[in-house]
Amino acid sequence: MSIVDWFAKKEKANATSTKLNIPGDVWIKCPSCGEILFQKDLESNAKVCPKCQHHFRLSASERIDLLVDPHSFVEVDSSISPIDFLTFSDTEPYQTRIHKSQSKSLSKDAVITGSATIQGIPVQLAVMDFGFMGGSMGAVVGEKITRTIERGVATQNPVIVVASSGGARMQEGIMSLMQMAKTSVALQQLARVKVPYISIMSDPTTGGTSASFATLGDINLVEPGALVSFAGPRVIEQTIRQKLPKGAQRAEFLLHHGMVDRVVHRKELPTTIAKLLRVLMIPSGGAHETTPL
Amino acid sequence: MKRLPFEKPLSELLDKIEQLKTLSQTEGIDLTSEIAKIEERADAVRRDLYANLTPIDVVQIARHPNRPDAISLATLMLTDWTELHGDRQFADDPSIIGGLGLMGSHRVMLIGHQKGHDTKENIYRNFGMPHPEGYRKALRLMQLADRFNIPIVTLIDTPGAYPGLAAEERGQAEAIARNLKEMAGFRVPIISVVIGEGGSGGALGIGVGNRLLMLQYAVYSVISPEGCASILFRDAKKADIAAKALRITASDIHSLGVCHGILPEPLGGAHHHWQETASTIQSACIAELNRYQSWSSDAIIEERFQHFRKLGPFIENNEPANMPSFC
Fold it and tell me: N or C: which end of chain A has fewer CB within 10 A?
């Protein structure tokens, strides 16, 4: 057999073996440890790699399922939809991007909001969806998060926001920047009525989202390994040509630098939140005088 | 003075004027009438150029190295101006300045981004890009003003908050976010003026005011036109298209309802006449501060809240909400 034939035979063998491969959505390779994981096992493990504990990204609805008591979530403001008020067009019109993202997703923009209970405690909840235009914050995200905070003021229920966002939505120009102010102003009102706000930062939380409501929690929690930054590593490398050390801007870096209260494993989030809220919400008279929540 | 790319037609005339001036000096010839004629033509050309500026031209004016800086404006606008330093936690950031003074009869705490006019100054001022300690200094000074019931004036002029490892380690995001939330709660009026570049979160970090004013050739944007071009248009050279699409000029920001008033600049831009620019800003701020003299602190907080609450158009139940006037 000549070497050419040998290669041809080898190639043929490779081709057959590719054909024999199992469909891509059944197996998934962990980007952190390289372990090949059975998709169903991963899903039943809160989308956390059983070998290295790498936290895969979640959609908003997956997040809600893992965070709140079963069947307790009641969505509100689901009909709020973005509008291309600047008639913005880059490589494609913003209107087209909106339509594409909406047809891929169950929701109309990058956040789902509503009320729920966590281990029996009623909360007002906003969960961002990185899958919808990179979780970018435009007027809809700003409005829905602001309304969530306002419902916290009105109901005295604690407010929980799960961030997962690349930052402001450039297609909405200055108005996306103003959502940082709008949500932060609302948090000032929540602080005045002394209702707790817990911010949960998941991978990634960067730019305008980190520089507004996501870092303003009375308690800031972050998932292991999550990237949280003002300027992401690529922005820093491109603008000032500074190469970041390994692990910079990850959850453990934030804990080390005093920016978050705790790094919390995804499966521990409901218990951690419930424990904190129980203590925070006991009237100052003391625990023995109150009925358990 | 640095001439801007779009001023090219003007540039030749200005060169000629300079040539004639040197000639008349060295040769002792009287060329006054010739010079006056060309100067007249130059003025006409300048008026024409400045009447037809594109957004990227305006960006260049906003970034002109001779544009009046915050400290110079403070010196020109305030009596008894005293600069105050430091965040009491880590350092004194030269990219943000602040201090006390009197504006007319009003006591004010003036806060501003500080750029330099040459390379040496710009390195010292980090090109007006603050680190977290800059925002924390601003917060400390604003809290001081709030405690003594002194109105706050902020002058915005930054390419953005500094993107670097040290800034991340010290919590750039948190420092900005905290300012947004705390500024919302101050009982004194806050007047913000964009005097040059309003660069994203770095600008907003001292910009949550009751009123936002913009100099005529100032810009305010969620991202620099260059940054937007390289991310969204995948081509950094398309900054001119991005500048137009983002709607960042004072008139755009005004028609979007984000800014309350536009302050006219001298012909050719603020860098030609600092004193005139300073008095324009000063009288606008005094007029604003006069408005609040009989206001309660609750009314001041409520006005600020209402301004930001209604920003951000969307559709709900097929009905558009918060739509800007031009739509």
Answer: N
